[in-house]
Amino acid sequence: MITGCITQFYPETNESSDILVVEGLITDQYEPYTITLTNSIPLGESQNAVPLTGCSVSVTDDLGNVYYFPESEDGTYVSNPSLFKGETGRSYILHIKRNTKLGYHVYESSPVTMKSVPPIDSIYYEKVVIHKADPWTQLKEGCQIYLDTKDPTNTCKYYRWEFTETWEFHLPYTVANNICWISDNSDKINIKSTSAYSDDNINRFPLDFISNNSDRLGVKYSMLVNQYSLSEDEYHYWEKLENVAENVGGLYDIIPASIPSNVYCADDPSQKVLGYFSVSAKSSKRLFVSDNFAGWQTPYTDEACVADTVFNGAYIPNLGIDKWVIVDHQLPPPAYKVYTYNRGCADCTVRGTKVKPDFWDNSK
After folding, report:
1. Which residues are paired to 96 by β-bridges?
2. pLDDT given at position 137
């Protein structure tokens, strides 16, 4: 009776399921720039965004140069770094020609000028006590990462940061693949404005907190931080997006469609566009953390990995299919093997890679 009273509710909207979503970033670095085009997902559906293929994508600058972005995979359009590098002070416009069943639509961004960005002063971490030791539980510590930066020219004012984290992890068993590295891109929106300050100075900006409930802090950890300069308009775009990410859930909360894009349909102004074409200088800095953090947790506990033990060479059916050996003890007798149903407990490449990053031994 109770479950029968619950009905999923979808409010009536005039939302189109065919809204263009644009994601793109041009920097001042020698690197390929990517423009990603997808169709929006209707309210209430959980499918992944649908890549928009077969479009013509280019970028022009204020000197009349045209740079083309061929489609490298479905919905992803990539520049040639040997032909195009952004320059501070230059303005850029994104152009998209999209084929439809009824013809095509032409989209353009407003002109975006690339602002210079200062270098990152420092990235550093501090240990944070999550739980003090007591007679029943052990000490638990996390890692708070901070950033300092400043612009002596007092012109940047609006900042955004993103980061890629990499960490080394070890399996607690003597198996062939027991040391790996894994990388992950940030999914946080980190922005800050100094427009209300007398000087363009940021101290102790909290980039990220790493709790003890993963193996990130177990061996060695690294974070590569990219710092971007923003226009005031783009800063407010990210600010609204951050508000959506933190607060959506109520019936009257902001929805992403209400956040204006800087891309518009040139031949049909009624066509809605989501996303943003970003143009920004970039500075980068890397942090290494190789320290002892109390109470960090590994996913490779005996409870999670150990299935059973067999003695004296007993046969293990489906070995290598749905069972894997994690302990092969021969001497001293008795000989025995411990196996698992979780392949990740016997092979670290299920989560990561055995290829050590080029920068890994450059830590200080």
Report:
1. 57, 107
2. 85
Quote the distance between the C-alpha of residue 300 and its chain's center: 24
Q: What is the DSSP string of 47-60?
A: PPPEE--S-EEEEE
136/198 same-domain check: yes
How many domains are contained in the chain? 3
Q: 3 in a domain, yes or no? A: no
* Residue 239 φ/ψ, nearest 5 degrees: -60, -45
User: Are 107 and 37 within 8 A, CB to CB?
Assistant: no
CB atoms closer than 10 angstroms to residue 249: 6
Residue 289 resides in a domain: no
Domain range for 324 is 302-357
Q: Are 345 and 300 in contact (CB under 8 A)?
A: yes
Q: pLDDT-derived band of residue 248, with 50, 70 and 90 as boundaries?
A: low
Q: What is the pTM of this model?
A: 0.87
Token pair of 296 as six digits: 């960090």
Whether the predicted pLDDT of 12 surpasses 60: no
Final residue in a domain of this structure, among 279, 313, 347:
279
Give CA–CA dist 37/22, Å, rounded.
5
For residues 335-347, one letter each, b for 16 or more C-beta atoms within 10 angstroms of the residue's C-beta and e for the rest, the string is eebbbbebebbbb
Distance CA 342, CA 307 (A): 9
Q: How many whole angstroms separate alpha carbon 206 and alpha carbon 217?
A: 18
> How does DSSP assign 202-250, residue by residue?
EEEEEEEEE-SSSSTTSSEEEEEEEEEE--HHHHHHHHHHHHHHHHBTB
Using the 3D structure, point to which of 206, 230, 254 is the last residue of a domain. Answer: 230
**Omega into 11 within 30° of 0, i.e. cis?**
no
